[in-house]
Design a protein that fits this description.
Order of helices and strands: EHEHEHEEHEHHEEHHEHHHH
Number of helices: 12
Shape: globular
CATH topology of the largest domain: Spore Coat Polysaccharide Biosynthesis Protein SpsA, Chain A
Strand content: 15-25%
Distance between the termini: 38 Å
Length: 336
């Protein structure tokens, strides 16, 4: 089992694994089981931040995984701020970010550590994310810009995944079994030298959810370090499966809330890194949704009417996100 980092005389952990959980008790149990297997002979500490869950997650961890340090928040801090809380308590030379719905393979940690120590120019790295069925999930991405944004929301990126132009945002054209230097990787699993985070900062707390890992990767890359994708490192991620949507369904309240959060973070990111480009992104999305609504008005049937309502709602949500963030200049009061 793992070595406790806080015990007197215990060695400094090679890796601190940070896991944020919000009402994910059952998959969190599976996640921690995978951590126990992957630890091997490494000196590792594991920290779980419970984001004010209501499902007994924290009690489960304390009872079943006594080697895990639990930090209970009195409010939902979101992904970035909760990880920042864990980072402040971490002692490892490397920080591993792990979603509570992601599961390590037996060699994940050892291989990650080996590859990081072999190349000090790497500032952050990740591996190949797959669903339970083995289907590849987007694991190595390029920084967003208005063109890539349009390719994604228009569906052209999904329609032509093998094209270097249309598939550029998620690099769907690339061989997933080839290592590559990329712009950013998803936060479901990543490994980062702790000293880089101490020097350049962890997550920007303004991002409650979405874009926090994009912002972090951009800052690390701007400091002269590489962001790497290593396919030999494989992690099973349930989240990619559960997020699939049936397009003909009416947008749910929960779905609309997540879309609004994504739009807020989009505007915050563009304003922070690209200034007035945030204006273009706002209008790009709004106009696209309104055009989609207009096109569906020309069709008959309930599916078309439902799509009109959905597209108009999306346009309204972007307008609301613009107002709430004052054009991407401020983060609305948290928790969102």
């Amino acid at each position: 089992m793992q070595n406790e980092a806080n015990d007197t005389g215990s060695p400094k952990p090679a890796i601190s694994i940070l896991i944020v959980s919000f009402n994910t008790r059952d998959v969190l149990r599976e996640c921690l089981d995978s951590v126990a297997v992957a630890t091997g002979n490494l000196v590792v500490e594991t920290i779980v931040v419970d984001n004010h869950s209501r499902d007994g997650s924290a009690a489960m961890v304390r009872e079943e995984f006594p080697w895990v340090r639990v930090i209970e928040s009195t409010e939902n801090l979101g992904f970035g701020r909760a990880n920042n809380l864990a980072f402040a308590a971490a002692h490892g030379r490397y920080i591993v970010l792990l979603n509570s719905d992601a599961f390590l393979q037996r060699d994940t940690l050892c291989l990650s550590l080996e590859k990081m120590e072999a190349d000090p120019t790497v500032g952050l790295a990740s591996g190949r994310l797959v669903g339970r069925d083995g289907e590849l999930q987007p694991s190595a991405r390029m920084f967003p810009n208005p063109m890539r944004q349009l390719l994604v929301i228009s569906g052209l990126a999904d329609k032509y995944p093998g094209s270097r132009f249309f598939g550029q945002a998620d690099r769907t054209w690339a061989d997933p079994m080839e290592a590559a230097e990329v712009d950013w990787v998803p936060g479901a699993y990543s490994i980062i030298p702790a000293d880089i985070l101490h020097r350049y900062g962890f997550f920007d707390p303004r991002f409650f959810l979405y874009y926090e890992e994009v912002d972090l990767c951009l800052r690390i890359q701007s400091a002269g370090y590489k962001i790497m994708y290593w396919p030999e490192i494989c992690v099973v991620h349930v989240g990619g499966e559960s997020s699939r949507q049936i397009k003909t369904l009416e947008m749910s309240q929960t779905g609309a809330q997540l879309v609004l959060w994504r739009m807020r973070s989009t505007l915050l990111y563009y304003r922070k890194h690209k200034g007035s480009t945030a204006v273009a992104v706002r209008w790009l999305e709004e106009i696209w949704y309104l055009l989609r609504a207009w096109r569906n008005r020309l069709r008959s049937g309930e599916d078309a009417r439902c799509e009109v309502r959905n597209q108009k709602r999306l346009a309204d949500l972007m307008s609301l996100a613009w107002k709430e963030t004052k054009g991407g200049r401020v983060s609305p009061p948290q928790p969102w």
